[in-house]
Amino acid sequence: MRVTEIFFSIQGEGSRAGRPCVFVRFTGCDLRCGYCDTAYAFHGGADMDRAAILAEVARHPARFVCLTGGEPMLQRELPDLARELLARGYEVAVETHGQRPLDALPAEAIRVVDVKTPGSGEVATDLAYLDRLQPHDEVKFVVCSEDDFRWSREVVRRHALEGRVQVLFSPAWGQVAPRDLVRWMLESGLDARLSLQVHKVVWGPDVHGV
Ligand SMILES: C[S@@+](CC[C@H](N)C(=O)[O-])C[C@H]1O[C@@H](n2cnc3c(N)ncnc32)[C@H](O)[C@@H]1O
Ligand SMILES: Nc1nc2[nH]cc(C(=O)O)c2c(=O)[nH]1
Ligand code: SF4
Ligand SMILES: [Mg+2]
């Protein structure tokens, strides 16, 4: 598997934000979101087999592992790695753009799907997988404008996501003021959750490996 970095930090995003977590960041992505804060993971990295990744994860005192990237679902062995982590008692979350099949992942793995908004420049044509998510999964919209928020709200409605999965709205860093996003959320009446990138508040926006 191709790995950019493995680090121990707090989960900065989503409904599990604030919890200690080991991050495994895989190298490579097939999308190019305009706002991507992790372009350093598009290339480079080092080959590690699953045993080496498991050993590195085990160096840290955490029970929660986040598989991210780049795009983790481009790694052929990702479902096997997730299964091995679960068998060792870890809670496992997979951060993905959702534009690669997710069905090979074990059901116990938490799918955190970032539904790419028009503002990302990488909207998907097929969102049918949203209808197969489970209650512990999360659907995240990174909002670049009020138009993006309206578009996201329509996806939530069309796929009946409210109350069925965790629905999260996150401001694209530096593009949307959190207070504007909160206002749009409250005006919409949706039962959704604001997600800020807590690690950027703690360590600053440009620090890698946190
Ligand atoms: C770097 S991506 C890696 C996982 C996967 N490729 C994806 O897009 O979900 C992890 C998360 O960071 C978010 N992200 C990246 N740049 C961001 C930014 N400038 N502001 C807010 N969220 C950002 C992405 O939208 C995604 O939800
Ligand atoms: N602390 C921290 N939390 C995160 N949650 C998701 C991240 C990601 O880049 O996928 C991330 C990250 O890069 N850092
Ligand atoms: S899919 Fe994720 S890693 Fe790839 S460009 Fe978009 S935000 Fe960055
Ligand atoms: Mg990140």
Topology pattern, helix = H, strand = E: EEEHEHEEEHEHEH
Q: How many beta-strand runs?
A: 9
Structural class: alpha/beta
CATH topology: TIM Barrel
Please give the order of strands in the largest beta sheet: 3-1-2-4-5-6-7-8-9
Hetero ligands: S-adenosylmethionine, the ligand Nc1nc2[nH]cc(C(=O)O)c2c(=O)[nH]1, iron/sulfur cluster, magnesium ion
Largest sheet: 9 strands, mixed
Full CATH superfamily name: Aldolase class I
Distance between the termini: 21 Å
Q: Under the CATH scheme, which architecture would be assigned?
A: Alpha-Beta Barrel
Report Rg: 16 Å
Q: Beta-sheet strand percentage?
A: 15-25%
Stretches with pLDDT under 50, minimum 5 residues: none
Helix content: 10-25%
Mean pLDDT: 97
Keywords:
4Fe-4S; binds the ligand Nc1nc2[nH]cc(C(=O)O)c2c(=O)[nH]1; binds magnesium ion; alpha/beta; 9-stranded mixed β-sheet; 210 residues; binds S-adenosylmethionine; globular; iron; binds iron/sulfur cluster; TIM Barrel; 9 strands; 5 helices; 23% strand
